[in-house]
Amino acid sequence: MNKRLLQGIVAGVVVIVALFMVAFVYLQWYRGNLSVVYLANGDLYVGKLTTFPRLVLHEGYQYQTSPDPKDPSKSISRLVPLSEASWAPVQVSLNKSQVIFYGTLLESSDIYKAIKDKESAAE
């Protein structure tokens, strides 16, 4: 086989693979699905999660629970936007070894609805 032809084939394969990778990342990022991430330390995060080339949470919220001051047997839950934290990250890169599980939230879940309602109110 001609050396020039072989180089053309290799270059074509590289371009096709690169296009698939860009399309995968683009679709994953702009899909807009909200995911939940549970870490080994018990922290629970919600946001737009990308998994390639590493786990990164965008537009994230931390799910916090605390005892109800009026009734200590009950707890209060709230979503705290990471953008409002004192360290206010643009995104959070997650260590895969610390992630217990992650998954996409159902559109019918209370957390999904709360975040979408907040986004609608901000617009």
Could you explain how this protein is built, in words?
This protein is of the alpha+beta class. It folds into 2 domains: 1-30; 32-122, SH3 type barrels (Roll), CATH 2.30.30.100. It is 33% helix and 33% strand. The chain is built from 2 helices and 6 strands; from the N terminus they run αββββββα. Strands 1, 2, 3, 4, 5 and 6 form a 6-stranded antiparallel sheet that branches. The longest helix has 28 residues, at 3-30. The protein is elongated, with a radius of gyration of 20 Å. The N and C termini lie far apart (60 Å). The mean pLDDT is 87.
What is the element layout, followed by pairings?
Layout: H1 3-30, E1 35-39, E2 44-50, E3 56-67, E4 75-81, E5 91-93, E6 99-104, H2 110-122
**Secondary structural class:** alpha+beta
The profile of the biggest β sheet is:
6 strands, antiparallel
Named CATH topology of the largest domain: SH3 type barrels
CATH architecture of the largest domain: Roll
Over the alpha carbons, how many angstroms does the gyration radius reach? Answer: 20 Å
Q: What does the average pLDDT come to?
A: 87
Task: Please state the oligomeric state of the protein chains shown.
Answer: single chain
CATH class of the largest domain reads Mainly Beta
Low-confidence stretches: none
Ends apart, CA distance between termini: 60 Å
SSE series:
HEEEEEEH
In short:
This protein is of the alpha+beta class and 123 residues long. The protein has helices at residues 3-30, 110-122; strands at 35-39, 44-50, 56-67, 75-81, 91-93, 99-104.
